[in-house]
Write a structure and sequence with these properties.
Elements: H1 2-39, H2 48-59, H3 64-75, E1 85-92, E2 98-105, H4 108-121, E3 125-127, E4 137-146, H5 152-159, E5 165-171, E6 176-182, H6 186-196, E7 201-211, E8 216-217, H7 222-233, E9 238-243, E10 245-246
Parallel strand pairs: 8-10
Antiparallel strand pairs: 1-2, 1-3, 2-9, 4-6, 4-7, 5-6
Length: 249
């Protein structure tokens, strides 16, 4: 019995690891597909979002065939003939919080039914189109770690010489800098940062994001909001979640 129990534990552990790995690959595939689509290119040399997404996938040992399929899907040359529809759904949460949920699906009826059911069961209220999204603006987000022995203030001063940068946020302890750009200048800013600080930084994130300045202080419902985010992310068709709250206001 002891041997059987040990095997059962090993089997359950392996199944859990396999499930986690599959979930990771699914998320990475979505990131690659969305990056290829939004960046309008399947070439990492011309699409900064895609370059970062592919690097993350390779770091997670995702097979090259999977990576290429995700890229092909993003640029519309996939062997999969199903039509993918993009929709954004809007939800009100507790304490004045709000969610924008971007989806990509071959079955919009299934997606909205699943999201509505999840919302009803968990206290979210679906909002009409535009009720929440008008508060958000699409911008470019680039985050990098400073790997060289450089002063962060010095780097930030240099950054503001690059056209198209709206704002920067520093994370002193982690030696990270987050750069917000105009959407139209995203690629040119990314290329300028790579060229200017080529051997001094490591790019951690490059994406188009929906942000709002009308942030809600949600520290009192932090645990609940994190639960809701996790529930929304469980839907296979969800590609991004954007929110109007912060825990550090």
């Amino acid at each position: 019995m002891a041997g059987h129990s040990k095997w059962a534990n090993i089997k359950r552990t392996k199944e859990a690891q396999d499930k986690k790995r599959a979930s990771t690959f699914t998320k990475l595939s979505k990131d690659i597909t969305v990056s290829a689509k939004l960046g309008e290119s399947g070439d990492v040399n011309f699409n900064p979002m895609l370059r970062v997404a592919v690097d993350k996938a390779k770091a997670a040992s995702m097979p090259n065939d999977n990576i290429q399929r995700a890229i092909d899907k993003g640029i519309g040359v996939s062997a999969d003939s199903s039509t993918v529809v993009e929709n954004t759904y809007e939800f009100y949460g507790p304490n004045g919080t709000a969610f924008l949920v971007d989806t990509e699906t071959d079955n919009p009826n299934r997606t909205i039914t699943e999201l509505k059911t999840m919302a009803t069961k968990n206290g979210l209220k679906m909002a009409s189109e535009g009720s929440i999204s008008w508060q958000f603006k699409e911008v470019g987000i680039i985050e990098f770690t400073v790997t060289a022995n450089r002063d962060l203030d010095e780097i930030i001063l240099s950054l503001f010489e690059i056209p198209g940068i709206i704002d920067t946020v520093r994370k002193e302890e982690e030696k990270k800098i987050l750069v917000k750009t105009e959407r139209s200048e995203f690629k040119s800013v990314f290329d300028s940062i790579k060229k200017q600080f080529e051997n001094e930084i490591k790019i951690e994130k490059a994406e188009l994001a929906k942000v709002t300045d009308a942030l809600v202080d949600a520290i009192s419902v932090k645990d609940r909001l994190e639960e809701l985010e996790a529930l929304i992310e469980e839907n296979q068709d969800v590609v991004n979640i954007w929110t109007n709250y912060d825990f550090d206001i």
